[in-house]
Description:
Blueprint: H1 7-10, H2 13-24, H3 27-44, H4 51-69, H5 96-101, H6 104-110, H7 115-126, H8 131-138, H9 142-157, H10 169-183, H11 186-192, E1 193-202, E2 214-215, H12 217-234, E3 236-242, E4 245-252, E5 255-265, E6 268-275, H13 307-312
Parallel strand pairs: 1-6
Antiparallel strand pairs: 1-2, 3-4, 4-5, 5-6
Helix pairs in contact: 2-3, 2-4, 3-4, 7-9, 8-9, 10-11, 11-12
Amino acid sequence: xxxxxxxxxxxxxxxxxxxxxxxxxxxxxxxxxxxxxxxxxxxxxxxxxxxxxxxxxxxxxxxxxxxxxxxxxxxxxxxxxxxxxxxxxxxxxxxxxxxxxxxxxxxxxxxxxxxxxxxxxxxxxxxxxxxxxxxxxxxxxxxxxxxxxxxxxxxxxxxxxxxxxxxxxxxxxxxxxxxxxxxxxxxxxxxxxxxxxxxxxxxxxxxxxxxxxxxxxxxxxxxxxxxxxxxxxxxxxxxxxxxxxxxxxxxxxxxxxxxxxxxxxxxxxxxxxxxxxxxxxxxxxxxxxxxxxxxxxxxxxxxxxxxxxxxxxxxxxx
Length: 318
């Protein structure tokens, strides 16, 4: 049996991946859910009038089932979404809503919602479905869907972004921020951080990482100065786009060992996100691969160091 979907529905894969990733927060689970939906579609294709509606509905339901089975309360340390590069199929963002919903900050906010609330909110606010359409996708009444979406929006309201940086401002801030981190100048780093900045690191119990958020500009500046100084001795560090925002990838040879990005807060860095869990990095395109060039200028080359020194530089050591 051919497991590849027919060409006429293959065009839907990026949209389905976009829905699944925002629901689940991990690439592997999103890809599995979409592939499972395609396999089910092949079994029922003859009787399906609207392939897109059927596939979105099936993908969404599969994601809800996966979320209900997930036990993130048992996750070791802080949970962050798996970072995605701009080249990944579900990362395309041709609308402001899609770009915003790809950000680490937004995906972390979604963790406050139950699976049904998350589906209703995403389908309505991000993907623009009407309430009656969502009702058909979720087997709810339009009135019920409206209530669920409103409840989800209210729950997220307190954490919605209050500062919308002007176009290009995030890139300019990133340039100054990462340049300061490269120098290891703690005062220069601190000057670019909001006073109440937060650093969240996800090691998943697989590598050293702070079990709790690091709070305060001075503490974070001290940590980043140490981390960058030691990582630059061991790694190639490449500026890139992480979940639609400026970031950097640390690689030891072909192996990606850290991905970092941040959320701006006005003209300062508000929240820094550091993903160290190797399970969430093994699908990131290697900066050393010929088909994975950086989409931002500059590469900070390594000198030499050992894997032990890398582990000592992890946020958990601070």
